[in-house]
Design a protein that fits this description.
198 residues; mainly alpha
Length: 198
């Protein structure tokens, strides 16, 4: 098979086709991913908040590990599903989330285990996850993810600036509703609408 050199028009058409293919796959599966991680984060946030409020025992911060305990089994389940052909853009999105996820996990673990006790972890996690979602939204041209991520990051600055613990926890949960939950429901709605038309 001979390699063919593409002209400018053909290259742009190929890139547009890759983005369109990624958007279709994004609509099919990513809505559920966003909802699992978003709701897991909101659930863990309220669990930690309530447990600390009722007991005052800082060991309840280990409930933050509910997020990966809920999210990673779903990711493993998804990885066993029949594989579709992946484009370069799919790989870019995968690597964005690999870097963001691993960094977020280790920073969070270091904070929970008191290696970095004064670190503003809630603010940093909101910014990291917001940037990951915004990059994903920009690459796939999914505007609700870009807008939701921007709103979530703005809420992150409120989280950083207010000293009140209750408001910090509330704004953390609210940020993830903007970053993951709302765009996830929009994606699922679009996917169902597309399926009902075909």
């Amino acid at each position: 098979m001979q390699d063919k050199t593409l002209n400018e028009k053909e290259s742009l058409a190929l890139i547009a086709q890759m983005i369109q293919n990624t958007q279709k796959r994004f609509e099919r599966g990513t809505g559920a991913n966003m909802l699992v991680w978003g709701y897991a984060t909101v659930f863990a946030t309220f669990s930690v908040w309530l447990a600390l409020r009722l007991t005052g025992n800082p060991n309840w911060n280990f409930l933050w590990f509910l997020i990966p305990l809920i999210g990673y089994p779903y990711i493993l389940f998804q990885s066993r599903q029949p594989k579709l052909v992946k484009t370069y853009i799919d790989k870019v999105i995968k690597y964005i989330w690999m870097v963001v996820g691993i960094t977020g996990f280790f920073l969070s673990a270091a904070t929970i285990f008191n290696f970095m006790w004064a670190f503003p972890i809630l603010f940093v996690v909101i910014l990291m996850m917001g940037m990951g979602s915004m990059l994903t939204g920009l690459v796939t041209e999914f505007k609700p993810s870009v807008i939701g991520s921007f709103a979530g990051m703005l809420i992150g600055f409120v989280n950083y600036l207010v000293p009140d613990y209750d408001i910090k926890m509330l704004t953390f949960a609210l940020a993830f509703i903007c970053i993951d939950v709302i765009p996830g429901h929009i994606l699922n709605y679009r996917a169902k609408k597309r399926c009902s038309k075909s």
